[in-house]
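Q: Can I see a sequence and its folded structure?
A: Here is a first one.
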Amino acid sequence: MDLSDGLNYYALSDTHEYSKAASKAGMYWDEKLDFLVLIGDISSHLETSDDINLINEIAHNITKGEKPVVYARGNHEVKAHLADQLYRYVGSKDDKFYYTFKLNGVYGIVMDLGEDHNDDWWEFYDFAHFDLYRAEQTAFLEQLLLSGEHLAPDVNYRMLISHIPVAYVQDNFLKDFKEEWTALLNQFNLDIALSGHHHQLMPITTDVPHSVDLRFHASYHQDTERVRGYRTDGNFNTFVVSRKSNVQDVSIPENLYGKRISGLAVETDFINNEQIVCYTNTKLEVVEVVNPFTGDLYKKLILPLE
């Protein structure tokens, strides 16, 4: 990757089998693409090798095998017969899906919050040990901070990738882990955090109040009374992708046949020290979105680099 002309990357999540629409949306940058990010739930259940290879299919359709691809495991990809074989298909050295990566001047941390139920959830039959797995990652972050590798002089851009957002808590699920991880991640000078899971085009920016009950803004949703969760005290902006739709409007249901999907395009300008973030769809159009918690409307959001 050559960062002398800036950085362009695309992020997709929650495609759930529908590779054609995902592949169309992921072509937004075309030849300008530097790397692709797949943020989990690309497949719903890993029953067969074909289910797993959907990840590689989308990656190949967009990059033709010529650009780097960063993969984060989703909560659906811990399920079914071949879930323990996933690492063999996506280039992992083992069955741990948390790691760091370095692409020229880009430094990334990939975290894996695992399932979206507690370990005592009836469906797991006492076989789930995700709390131990998450505790490993707390130690992992602590070791990364001690190493100081994120401060290397050749690092120009720092990012966090996790299927389930770290800086957003719903129903107090994983509250303690997310709070603890946020305190550690705040020390990495992150430029951006990318997540999926919620099937929404949802910027959770630092201008959203932290540590207080959040409700949807009237311009985003008619139900403004229900508490939707809260933002942790993260000093980094989080963008939740994707949605199986060409629009953000939640009054329009997601497309059940997988013909439409919107993802996230990011353009980084190192000369002006800023990044331009926008959601785009299968028509390669920029999607106008509203911040669900502040009501701010935008097509492209310009953010300073850390």
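Q: Show me another, different protein.
A: A second, unrelated one:
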Amino acid sequence: MPLASIVAAVGMIVMHQTTYAAGRLGFLAFAMFVPVTTAALAYNFSKRRDLAIVSGLLAVFSIYYAPFIPVSDNYGIYIVLGGIYFLLCLDRKPRTYFFLGLIAGLLTLARSDGLLWIGLTILLILWRFISDRKAGAASINFILALIGFFLIMGPWFWRNEQIYGTLLAPGGHYLLWLTNYDETFIYPANQLTMQSWLAQGWQNILSVRWSALIINFENAFAAQGGIFLFPFIIVGIWRYRKDERVQFASLAWLGLLFVMTVIFPFAGPRGGFFHSGAALQSVWWSLAPLGLESAVGAARRRGWFTPQAFKVFRVALAGIAIVMTGFIFYIRILQPGWGEDEQIYPKIETMLQQNGIAPTDIVMVRNPPGYYLMTGRSAIVIPYGDENSLLDAARQFHARFVAIEAAGASGPIETIYNGKGDSSLRFLGEINEPNNDTRIFEIEP
């Protein structure tokens, strides 16, 4: 979906340059609003400035989310939009549903699972219709929500209709029939069918989803729940269980868990659940200090703590988040590994230039966006499949060279990497890097 690209483009236009730093400008702006929207939502829950500040600090020092919020991805966008959604949804004025539709549209423009949010908005309208019994108001609210949604998504749907003849990219439904994650890159995609999916057997189908459920629960505890925050979030949910926002946030989380476990069991554990769940993080960070307060209050009634315990534990909550975020930042960014895979691409480009690659030639690699970022050359992904799939994709997209990294040489591609491929591939050379040697081939006409 295009919203991250649009945000990056705005930064490039403002800075008059097409660098990565310029593209990050809009994402840094969203990152700055993450603690603001979280603190505002927290204050909306408790009407207490001290607890709102703690929630804001939890959003600043967001542990596993911290390395990803300021980069050119949808994390910061999702957290801010999700926070605004729950800030607005208590208001029952008709205009509110228009704004909820707008936010649902923006969430969908960011990620395809954002469609859940227009569904949640419609469910909210129906829920209130059941309690209020005002059909006219419900109809107006429904129309306003759809107007807001299509105001954002309409141009994108129109664009897709012009290009593909469908409202959404036509390949999406093939993801339903994956039997392993690497088939996300299968070529051609029409090999993925219900018949091929059923052929793996129900034991494998259920086993994959059970594994996805376990990993997604681990994600909920560690990443979304921040490990030590998790029990306080649960207590906060229970304390505010009658609050409509908490009810719908919990329903949204369960919906995401179902989608990322049952329908997309490979995408969910590979980051999809972590990614899409970002829209709910403002709610969880708002509830954590409230859950802590309830837990300490219960202990105080048993005579365990002094009245000053509230202040001590609030400071400790923020302090632990700061320490854990620093640790995650260190191991994810400062330690070797972050972004290192792309460092080999300039060396590949140099070898290709020595072998006569033209400025317009396309290369096949494991990470095409990374290759373009590091070299400025257009690239396509090495498809999942056998040699014929690779050659067919190369012919269709006019790729002349392929660079196979040892880290990506699995399955049928390993045959080519080991020099046992088709005579249409001519070995040019090898670039040796620790734990990731790369072999380069020219695709004969």
